[in-house]
Amino acid sequence: MVFMKKNTNYRFLIVIIFILTSSIVVSYALSSVWGQTYSNPLIFTRGHYDLDTGQMLQGHNSTDYDASNIPNCPPEIGVFIHGWGLNEPMANERYNRTWMSLQANNYSLPLISFSWDSNTTSSLSDSGLSGWNHAKSIARDNGPKLAQFIIDYADKCNSENKESKIRLISHSLGARVILSSLDSLHKNDSWNNNNYTVTSVHLLGAAVDNEEVSKNILDITNDWTNLWTEKTIAYGNAIEQEVTDFYNLYSPNDNYLEPKALMQIYPSYEYGDWALGQNGYQILPYPITTSLPQNYKESNVENEIAPTCDADGDKNIDFTFSKGDIINRGDNHLGYIGSRNVTDNTKLIDDGAINIVVDNWKNVKPEFDQGLALTARCN
Predict the structure, then answer these.
(1) CA pair distance 263, 265, nearest whole angstrom
(2) What is the pTM of this model?
């Protein structure tokens, strides 16, 4: 049954100032501003972890989750996993924008939001490194929870003799949740004995290291930037054996992920390592091409990401950009899932890379947008 390296610049204080303020600026009112309701299909693990320490709280275990409004085994479902630093209303906005971009491409499927404790507490004393590290560990630990939902869903559909394809989409640090979930599925006897498979995975702007998709554990353990971190797994075998089609959509100009002299984020937090979502799988200091999963595919989608300074349409310039800045296509890390119209944020001005996701789902050659402006000025 089918269901279906390296840069040594270091952290900048302004990064943590953004992280500390972003969750405060956005209030519960966003739920109504963006038309959110809590009737949307939802997998919910918020409140399972201490946001100050990253430790699991009493009353929870490695696989528990809450779910509501889950559809009863339609032909296919999608699960969207958001990234770092988002409280619940902000996560709802990302989910809703992804859904709108799917609708803009005339693709309708039940899209489930996976909402997790990503809004960890950061400290000025270490420029936010502790908050980032706690978020990474919480993301990893949410993998078994997502995996358990997938198993439970597959079992339910199997018991009703229904086939329902499972499609996973992540943005940013949500990629770590997906990779960890695939590792859990790979180790689960029930899942494997039933020959279940995840139909597709799309990582958008993946904030994970570019060697982690390898099948060779030495690519992980021999990388000095992974010392004393939670990165001890080569996920390539799980990708190859538990997923039908696996896609990595990246942008070399991604303002959160790219190595640069000023306002560098991901490489600074990862001791010079580069992100999978910035330039694809590892080429330097040596290529991991021969260790990639056979079903691994990647595409440069920088020309799909509009040069917008306010992707969520909240009338605030997105982080790392400032008033008067000239930005290019592919710059905005928040634009992979689309960009809202600032004057009417219930509408989109761009669908980001979601059209590529839809083309992949339809198994047709992706049609890359050609009509986007090359640059824009932040006002």
Answers:
(1) 6
(2) 0.90
